[in-house]
Design brief:
The protein has a domain of 72 residues. With 105 residues, the protein is mainly β. The strands form two sheets. A four-stranded antiparallel β-sheet has the order 1-2-5-6. It has a two-stranded antiparallel sheet with strand order 3-4. A hairpin with a 2-residue loop joins strand 1 and strand 2.
């Protein structure tokens, strides 16, 4: 007869929300409070554009989702960041947005 598998308290499954997301935390960015939620690779099923590096976040890539803590922006105010880009956001300078055909100096 087989043995039952019992998880220990504090195992890695605790604190996870639906879709492979972990618990939310609040962090400061540009003088505003932002809710930051880590997304696991299995919880990511769409392509997103990282505002930190302007590169694509592919499906099944772990990343973070951020949105203003005041909750006034709704779904359209959510931003998906690479975890490393969110961590180094204070070290980045302002970016110049160029058109697709514009010169890159």
């Amino acid at each position: 007869m087989g043995r039952k598998h019992h998880r220990k308290p504090g195992s890695s499954g605790e604190g996870r929300g639906p879709g492979g997301s972990s618990a939310r935390r609040v962090e400061d960015y540009d003088g505003e409070d932002w809710v930051v939620q880590s997304i696991t690779g299995s919880g990511s099923t769409k392509n997103y554009r990282c505002p930190g590096c302007d590169q694509e976040i592919r499906p099944a890539t772990p990343h973070v989702v951020t949105y203003p803590a005041d909750g006034l922006g709704g779904v359209e105010s959510r931003r998906h960041w690479h975890t490393a880009c969110w961590s180094s956001r204070h070290n980045r300078g302002p970016r110049t947005m160029r058109s697709a055909g514009g010169p890159r100096y």
